[in-house]
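About this split. The held-out portion is used to measure sequence recovery: a designer receives only the structure tokens and must propose an amino acid at every position. Recovery is the fraction of positions where the proposal matches the reference. Here is one held-out target exactly as it appears in the evaluation file.
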């Protein structure tokens, strides 16, 4: 059981201080939530940029393999190596 030893007058005198503290904390959490949302948005953008970067690297590697001639490339299917209409590429799936 909670027993209040203060008089109602003392309690009424402290109300402005309590509301000021609440107002300050409200401002703090509003700023904190804004920063947290911004961090989340930046993380999402970073993840999307990393995926784009990975895909671009893959496409660049495929392009460079297509225009170069070396032993590793010659072992794989190469769209540029078509001799007399014959190639070693897998068939296209419609």
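Reference sequence for scoring:
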């Amino acid at each position: 059981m909670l027993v209040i030893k203060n008089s109602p007058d003392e309690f009424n005198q402290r109300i402005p201080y309590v509301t000021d503290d609440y107002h300050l904390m409200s401002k703090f959490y509003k700023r904190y939530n804004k920063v947290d949302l911004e961090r989340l948005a930046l993380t999402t953008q970073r993840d999307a940029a990393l995926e784009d970067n990975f895909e671009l690297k893959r496409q660049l590697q495929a392009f460079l393999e297509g225009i170069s001639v070396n032993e590793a490339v010659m072992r794989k299917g190469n769209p540029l190596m078509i001799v007399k209409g014959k190639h070693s590429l897998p068939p296209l799936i419609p």
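Annotator remark: The chain has a mean pLDDT of 77.
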